[in-house]
Specification:
Largest interface: A-B, 31 and 31 residues
Number of helices of chain A: 5
Oligomer: homodimer
Helix content of chain A: 10-25%
Strand content of chain A: 25-35%
Radius of gyration of chain A: 19 Å
Mean pLDDT of chain A: 94
Distance between the termini of chain A: 24 Å
Order of helices and strands of chain A: EHEEHEEEHEEEHHE
Low-confidence stretches of chain A: none
Largest sheet of chain A: 10 strands, mixed
Number of domains of chain A: 2
CATH architecture of the largest domain in chain A: 2-Layer Sandwich
Chain lengths: 257, 257
């Protein structure tokens, strides 16, 4: 028996999220089917991040145990033959039997992309949220800085009863704006040790309210204090969000790529 | 009667090219339908570049004449409501009645993107050609430089009987390579005063042969001399190609954006 870790990239557009569900096609379900068929034994992967419907990933992680004799490093080739074009394994590797990305000291990076222009651009439609409303990026940057640090993110999450603590540490929240021929691309990059349900999308929705002038950049501290989802901004749409990277710390950290 | 010019962006993936055809959905056909419905008169646009099936554009141009009283500058709003999400008008403007982009002194820029990595990346699958074969980018750059200037491009075109001259001037052929997390993105940018049928894709196919070591960088001059399509490389697939930009010269040049 050995444990194999997959680095999985996907275009989430046509999926009902990561996690296997009674209805709808999911990333996890597609991986389970491809692995079970390919290895000839029932495989159930365990993912690092249960991304929502429509969210993309350049780098999600999944581990599974197998009796296969084939080296884990070779599995990505055969696996990619069996996966649809919008899900691919970019790396497969053997990891220690007890290793699980969710049990490691790690940092995850998400990026949210917003395309601001008078008209939507077909070439930017799949991996960015389009808005024609101008955004004050300097105000958004001032607000973003207030997310960094250890906070109770209750106001920035959709409650899930099983969660015991809403305290998370955001190690980075940076905004860049790149001029494109017919509009601007704003990227909001958020890194942290863990994220509550919908946390990045609510942070982004709140930053957009600041960008539109509906909320002061200084309001973030008060929103944290109120511990009330209703006082933060709306949940930004899934299409703009991408899980971009993982970094592991501690002894024998596993390298992703 | 006035003449309106549209700047049109599209994801060419699901289209049978620009030009209206008996079978298959085309960009031109979609524009004609949307304009005819919206303006209430039969409209037939005339395009600047008849891009092939599967080729993308950030900036193709189309002109049409109309009796509509609405200012041309306002038409893009209503038009975009009627266009599918993979075709959008990024700018509409009134131009002189005799103006046609194909009759102007102009330069067109195409970009061809090649994603080189061990595995295809779902997030790069729509607007780039994937290859796992490493490419020698320095050799490709040396070959690319030989395309610049006035040449008879017969060897780099699929013959079309109606063409009278195969002499074209390439004003730029530049290659950049950007490192991405799981692979490299190579961009081949070609600018010129006009292009023969399949010319950019055959230039790219030939540059890839150089990158793979199947052809010497110095061979380009001999391929020009032989005036024979068979001695150049294969036609690179449509998915990697995008019409990126137009520039007009001369008196009262029309500004694209």
């Amino acid at each position: 028996m050995k444990r194999v870790m997959l680095t999985v990239a996907y275009d989430g557009t046509r999926y009902n999220g990561w996690q296997v569900q009674p209805n709808g096609v999911t990333i996890e379900g597609e991986l389970n089917s491809a692995l079970t068929e390919f290895l000839g034994e029932e495989i159930r992967v365990s993912g690092a991040s249960r991304t929502d419907a429509g969210v993309h990933a350049l780098c999600n992680l999944a581990v599974f145990d197998t009796n296969a004799r084939m080296p884990g490093e070779k599995m990505s080739y055969a696996l990619n033959q069996r996966l649809p074009e919008d899900i691919k394994v970019l790396c497969s590797q053997e990891v220690p039997p007890a290793f699980h990305p969710r049990k490691c000291e790690s940092r995850k990076t998400y990026v949210y992309r917003i395309y601001v222009a008078p008209f939507p651009n077909p070439l930017e439609r799949t991996y960015a949220l389009f808005t024609y409303v101008p955004l004050d990026v300097d105000a958004m940057k001032a607000a973003a800085a207030q997310f960094v640090g250890e906070h109770d993110f209750t106001s920035f999450s959709t409650s899930k009863p099983e969660i015991t603590s809403s305290v998370r540490t955001v190690t980075m929240c940076e905004i860049t704006e790149v001029e494109k021929p017919f509009g601007n691309m704003i990227e909001i990059r958020v890194q942290g040790n863990g994220f509550l349900y919908n946390m990045v999308r609510i942070m982004v929705g709140t930053l957009m309210e600041v960008g539109r002038g509906n909320l002061e950049a200084e309001a973030i501290a008060a929103i944290f204090e109120q511990k009330d989802r209703a006082v933060a901004g709306p949940t930004a749409p899934a299409c703009g969000l991408m899980l971009e990277n993982y970094t592991f710390f501690g002894e024998n950290p596993v390298k992703i790529y």
